């Protein structure tokens, strides 16, 4: 069986680490990772709990394909109630940490309570201990990882930790593993900080913690899957060459690149901050921003960017610690740090991105919040005296300074660290927060792509591109081409994407495989790894069950169908340029149909029939 | 013709499929701690360096072994650990100046790359998705070649 | 050409095999002084543990190996060497002529010079015969007093404890393995052993031994007596050189050899624990009694004996020790050099330690406890006298980056 069937329960209040068997009945109904940990969470916490209070729990979880030769089989997720949204939070990360956790013999680590003092969890195969982290508190992710590996004298230890952002409870603080891979969104790092948990360090060397049910079938399916990834234009060429940044110019030309806090839908300097720009040699030092591409564990796509800054750039010229290569810009980060603020300085974006990794905060929410602040500034609502900076559109200096302040919890960075919803509300302009349920949009305009608009409005963790990636049909034609402005068929397509995504997020695989893979590629890998029947129908039912379970948690937390909406700007202000000029988001047409295909009532509550069908 | 593993850092993305393949071949497990080939990440230059035994002519490990547990495979030229003869004294692990023979505490034996003796070519080579690991004629390898490659450009994305 | 090799340890056997390759027509004879098949002392701890049978200690496992290589094994001790006549007198009364002679007689335990050291129940742990005697007596509950916690004293502990004995270790100095480990590393080993139930008495050495009703009484002075069912002496070893008296071969700490492993008498070579050669780091002469050194010297000597000039590059002091499962190692000038720098990291609660010693931009020594992965790279860096460049500062900051430093600085791959 591809589960270790072992859960590590860590009570931070009592300082205890106890092993317990995984609930295999739940594994059969929720697969693993996102689904399974969410089942544990909703079963164990009060949905109305303050996310940063003692009663919240934080779960690190792997999937059955994590730590296997399945391409991209290295994912883990962090599941908790999110402080940015007050909704279910599930942030997914790659790198090498997840596989190591599995090699150490654990499917899941559940943190409960609050440690009286800063600690980190050290897992060495079957042994786990809480170690004093007084010397690490106040340190960055990068320092923390280095110190832990050095202290325990094992460069192979994998570390997931929070930086100062998580300690300071920045509401969009993430958890960073392997220096620049992150469970980035929804503030899971703030929850970790609230528990005085600095890091989780893992070394796994067990050879029989879990088994592949049918190795022969598994390798057949896995090899076939790898061939599909290698032969696909997106996963075989586009992503390895340009990373997700392959999208920057595509989305901009389509008129779907939100710019300057969604005032515009095209960025005149998109070409300066995209994947192609990262390949170009700089005039200053003759070197390209991009050094190489790098893979997460077991990933045959290798979309990750490894970048090196221009050492003469204003942001780092006296800071040699940023002159080495590190995790470079992905599309969402480049958009949020760049187009969302009108900043076109690739090096400044790279530096801000380094800081997001170094101190553990989400570049999407950070960049979008800076965008909101800039609009407030341009409107005269925020002043230079109040901010300590000129927040003019496109100011690279403002971006990097706010990034530094947010990392350190200094100055106006404290306000930025509360996210755009709280920032805009504080200054009396809540409608300027480009967010849903408190979480900022990523890099696709919800007017320009009607399906993405619906995906944002209905996402269980607030605005998110990773809960139903309608960009696939609306831009890339996967699995079928749907016109961006069409509304017909989109609710049903979105439901299918949401359910399939929940399956992928519960398997240990990376969602990016679905640029090339369909269920027909994924199902045989799960089937061969896991004992029992894992048919297409059963997997999709699991996906739908997970979606509805998350929905019910959010409803119980006080979030209703009224929150399934978009900011007025997207509903009322037409896109102002490009192919989608004139578009507004047509939730009015799509939402009732969406609720219907979901089997929900008109106010967005799963009906009894739906609940019964899904076994909820 | 004897063949050797040719490891090209410029093509490596650090995905560790090779490590899993090696661990599976030898331990029926994906646990990369048990792999005989390791990919070392050099963060500062942004470089992934796969490395394993070069089957060197000096055969420091084989010479140092006090129990005749490391033998030369006449077909591949690999130096092969014979587990039943290995007592786990670890002398080879300090004798190998390349650091590529290591002690495995749960078996109580040492292990090193044996080019997958008995199989149809090294598992790591088959698993590598980028061609960073190839199995080539023996005269196209060795340390001098490794040094040559090392001098190559460092701004060369592995898959472009 | 008649090649005679005195001693059947690793140096002797490798020399014989090298000779056969280099000189297919030669006559090759090895004298096996203990009357055993050539075996490895390094394997004895695993024999005591019960991991292997006696045959598991044999240096070569293939049946008929020596016959196939036409290497004649003669079970006899050398009594004396007549370098003028080119003969070696044997314990059997006969003598053997040679054209080239290799002395590879290794070491013998140096028993402490106290009354009662010759009593029954007192053993060294060096030879197969010693091991057989210990196996016979190491019954569950047997009280064992062991003098010495050097390399041998430590490496046999696991075998002894696995047989259920009640073990007390006497250490003359304050530190275990003080010839190989600095005080911090030594302290970790001690706490590890004590956590495993071994009693360790430092600054303690017996005044004498007596026997009362078959039970040894170990007199620690000041009225302290430890009863023991048997007593193990593990205080060190000396080169086996007695039979060379009057041979004219120059001996200081060991047989003085040149880079070809040739002694002061042409045609007479020495390798292994009996040879005094040059340290590759310090240039100073000394005996370096470790297995890899013995093997390399045996190989070099054999090539020269066969008329193929080869030079020993100097010996590096390095060793790896497993003490009740805890692996430690030492390399080169682990005590440091005047004006050198050092760095270390210690994790006492997990018994892990790594200390590096630098001379300028070169690594010259290391001590480790619990650090095993890619540990050979320490040899590569030290013996290769690799200029560390930027890796010096990185290792100073984080010594665990040893393999990275090796790949980066020695292989130019980083």
Task: Itemize the secondary structure elements and their pairings.
The complex is a heterotrimer of chains A (616), B (160) and C (414).
Chain A: E1 6-11, E2 16-21, H1 24-30, H2 33-44, E3 57-62, E4 76-81, E5 88-93, H3 97-103, E6 108-112, E7 119-124, E8 127-132, H4 141-151, E9 158-161, H5 164-167, E10 175-177, E11 181-183, H6 188-194, E12 197-203, H7 215-231, H8 233-242, H9 247-253, H10 270-273, H11 275-279, E13 290-294, E14 304-307, E15 326-327, H12 331-337, H13 346-359, H14 363-378, H15 384-387, H16 396-408, H17 413-416, H18 419-426, E16 435-436, E17 439-440, H19 450-458, H20 471-476, H21 490-505, H22 519-529, H23 536-556, H24 568-572, H25 587-598, H26 608-614
Parallel strand pairs in A: 1-6, 7-12
Antiparallel strand pairs in A: 1-2, 3-4, 3-6, 4-5, 7-8, 9-10, 9-12, 10-11, 13-14, 14-15, 16-17
Chain B: E1 3-7, H1 17-27, E2 38-42, E3 47-51, H2 60-64, E4 70-72, E5 79-81, H3 91-95, E6 102-104, E7 109-111, H4 123-127, E8 133-137, H5 143-150
Antiparallel strand pairs in B: 1-8, 2-3, 4-5, 6-7
Chain C: E1 2-6, H1 10-22, E2 27-31, H2 44-49, H3 65-68, E3 71-74, E4 78-82, E5 87-90, E6 95-97, E7 100-103, E8 107-109, E9 122-124, H4 128-137, E10 143-147, H5 151-155, H6 157-162, E11 166-170, H7 183-195, E12 199-201, E13 208-212, E14 215-221, E15 224-228, E16 230-233, E17 237-239, E18 255-256, E19 268-270, E20 275-278, E21 285-287, H8 291-305, E22 318-323, E23 326-332, E24 341-347, E25 352-359, E26 362-369, H9 376-383, H10 390-397, H11 402-410
Helix pairs in contact in C: 1-8, 9-11, 10-11
């Amino acid at each position: 069986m591809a589960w270790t069937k072992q859960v590590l329960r860590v009570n931070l209040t009592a300082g205890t680490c106890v092993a317990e068997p995984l609930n295999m009945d739940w594994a059969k109904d929720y697969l693993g990772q996102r689904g399974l940990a969410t089942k544990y969470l909703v079963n164990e916490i009060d949905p109305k709990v303050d996310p940063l209070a003692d009663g919240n729990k934080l779960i690190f979880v792997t999937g059955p394909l994590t730590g296997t030769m399945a391409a991209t089989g290295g994912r883990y997720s962090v599941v908790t109630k999110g402080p940015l949204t007050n909704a279910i939070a599930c942030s997914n990360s790659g790198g090498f940490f997840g596989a190591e956790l599995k090699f150490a013999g654990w499917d899941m680590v559940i943190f409960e309570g609050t440690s009286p003092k800063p600690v980190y969890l050290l897992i060495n195969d079957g042994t786990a201990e809480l170690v004093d982290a007084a010397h690490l508190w106040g340190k960055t992710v990068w320092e923390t990882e280095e110190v832990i590996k050095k202290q325990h004298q094992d460069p192979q230890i994998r570390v997931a930790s929070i930086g100062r952002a998580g300690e300071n409870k920045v509401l969009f603080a993430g958890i960073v593993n392997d220096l620049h891979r992150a469970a980035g969104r929804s503030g899971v790092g703030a929850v970790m900080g609230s528990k005085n948990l600095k890091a989780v360090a893992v070394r796994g060397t067990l050879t029989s913690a879990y088994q592949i049910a049918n190795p022969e079938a598994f390798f057949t399916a896995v090899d076939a899957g790898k061939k599909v990834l290698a032969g696909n234009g997106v996963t075989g060429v586009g992503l390895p060459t340009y990373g997700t940044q392959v999208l920057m110019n595509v989305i901009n030309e389509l008129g779907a690149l939100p710019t300057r806090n969604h005032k515009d839908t095209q960025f005149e300097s998109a070409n300066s901050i995209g994947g192609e720009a990262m390949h170009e040699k700089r005039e200053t030092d003759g070197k390209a921003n991009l050094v190489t591409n790098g893979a997460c564990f077991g990933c045959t796509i290798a979309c990750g960017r490894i970048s090196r800054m221009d050492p003469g750039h204003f942001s780092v010229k006296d800071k040699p610690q940023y002159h080495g290569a590190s995790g470079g810009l992905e599309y969402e980060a480049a958009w949020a740090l760049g187009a969302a603020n009108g900043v076109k300085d690739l090096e400044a974006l790279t530096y801000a991105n380094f800081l997001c990794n170094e101190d553990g905060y989400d570049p999407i929410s950070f960049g979008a919040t800076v965008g909101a602040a800039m609009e407030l500034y341009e409107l005269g609502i925020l002043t230079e005296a109040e901010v300590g900076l000129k927040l003019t559109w496109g100011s690279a200096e403002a971006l990097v300074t706010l990034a530094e302040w947010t990392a350190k919890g200094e100055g106006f960075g404290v306000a930025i660290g509360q996210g755009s919803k709280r920032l805009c509300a504080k200054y009396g302009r809540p409608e300027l927060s480009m967010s849903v349920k408190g979480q900022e949009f990523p890099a696709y305009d919800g007017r320009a792509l009607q399906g993405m608009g619906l995906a944002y409005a209905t996402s269980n963790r607030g605005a998110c591109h990773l809960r139903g990636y309608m960009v696939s049909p609306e831009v890339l034609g996967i699995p079928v081409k749907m016109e961006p402005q069409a509304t017909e068929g989109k609710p049903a397509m979105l439901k299918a994407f949401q359910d399939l995504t929940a399956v992928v997020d519960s398997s240990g695989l990376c969602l990016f495989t679905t640029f090339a893979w369909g269920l027909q590629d994924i199902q045989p890998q799960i089937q061969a790894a896991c004992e029992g029947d894992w048919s297409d129908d059963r997997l999709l039912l699991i996906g739908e069950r997970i979606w509805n379970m998350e929905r019910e948690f959010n409803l119980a937390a006080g979030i209703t169908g009224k929150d399934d909406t978009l900011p007025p700007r997207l509903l009322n202000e037409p896109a102002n340029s490009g192919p989608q000029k004139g578009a507004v988001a047509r939730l009015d047409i799509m939402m009732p149909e969406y609720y219907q295909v979901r089997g929900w009532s008109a106010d967005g509550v799963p009906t009894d029939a739906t609940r019964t069908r899904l076994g909820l | 013709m004897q063949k050797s593993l040719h490891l090209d850092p410029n093509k490596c993305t650090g995905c560790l499929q090779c490590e899993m393949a090696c661990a599976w071949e030898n331990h029926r497990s994906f646990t990369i701690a048990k792999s005989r080939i390791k990919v070392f990440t050099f963060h500062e230059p942004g470089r992934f360096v796969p490395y394993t035994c070069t089957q060197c002519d000096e055969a420091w490990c084989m010479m140092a072994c006090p129990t005749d547990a490391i033998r030369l495979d006449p077909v591949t030229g690999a130096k092969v650990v014979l587990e039943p003869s290995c007592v786990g004294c670890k002398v080879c692990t300090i004798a190998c100046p390349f650091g590529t023979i290591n002690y495995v505490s749960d078996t109580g034996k040492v292990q090193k790359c044996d080019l997958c003796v008995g199989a149809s070519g090294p598992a790591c080579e088959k698993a590598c998705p980028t061609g960073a690991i190839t199995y080539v004629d023996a005269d196209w390898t060795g340390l001098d070649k490794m040094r040559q490659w090392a001098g190559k450009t460092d701004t060369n994305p592995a898959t472009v | 050409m008649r090649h005679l090799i005195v001693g059947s340890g690793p140096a002797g056997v490798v020399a014989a095999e090298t000779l056969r390759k280099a000189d297919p027509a030669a006559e090759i004879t090895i004298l096996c002084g203990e009357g055993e098949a050539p075996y490895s002392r390094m394997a004895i701890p695993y024999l005591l543990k019960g991991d292997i049978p006696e045959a598991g200690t044999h240096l070569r496992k293939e049946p008929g190996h020596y016959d196939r290589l036409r290497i004649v094994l003669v079970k006899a001790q050398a009594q004396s060497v007549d370098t003028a006549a080119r003969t070696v007198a044997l314990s059997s009364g006969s003598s053997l002529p040679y054209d080239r002679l290799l002395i590879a007689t290794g070491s013998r335990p140096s028993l402490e010079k106290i009354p009662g050291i010759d009593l029954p129940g007192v053993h060294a742990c060096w030879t197969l015969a010693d091991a057989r005697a210990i196996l016979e007596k190491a019954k569950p509950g047997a009280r064992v007093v062991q003098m010495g916690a050097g390399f041998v004293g430590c490496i046999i502990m696991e075998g002894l404890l696995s047989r259920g004995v009640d073990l007390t270790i006497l250490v003359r100095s304050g530190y275990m393995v003080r010839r190989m480990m600095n005080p911090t590393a030594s302290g970790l080993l001690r706490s590890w052993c004590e956590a495993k139930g071994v009693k360790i008495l430092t600054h303690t050495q017996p005044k004498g031994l007596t026997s009362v009703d078959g039970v040894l009484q170990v007199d620690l002075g000041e009225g302290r007596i430890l009863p023991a069912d048997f007593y193990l002496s593990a205080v060190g070893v000396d080169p086996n050189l007695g039979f060379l008296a009057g041979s004219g071969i120059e001996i200081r700490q060991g047989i003085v050899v040149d880079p070809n492993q040739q002694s002061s008498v042409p045609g007479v070579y020495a390798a292994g624990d009996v040879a005094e050669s040059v340290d590759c780091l310090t240039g100073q002469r000394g005996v370096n009694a470790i297995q890899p050194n013995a093997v390399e010297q045996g190989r070099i000597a054999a090539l020269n004996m066969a008329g193929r000039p080869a030079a020993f590059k100097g010996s590096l002091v390095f060793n790896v020790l497993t003490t009740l499962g805890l692996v430690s190692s030492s390399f080169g000038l682990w005590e440091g050099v005047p004006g050198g720098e050092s760095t270390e990291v210690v994790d006492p609660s997990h018994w892990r330690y790594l200390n590096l010693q630098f001379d300028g931009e070169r690594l010259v020594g290391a001590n480790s406890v619990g650090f095993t992965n890619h540990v050979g790279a320490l040899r590569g860096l030290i013996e290769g006298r690799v200029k560390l460049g930027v890796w010096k500062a990185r290792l100073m900051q984080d010594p665990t980056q040893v393999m990275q430093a090796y790949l980066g600085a020695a292989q130019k791959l980083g």
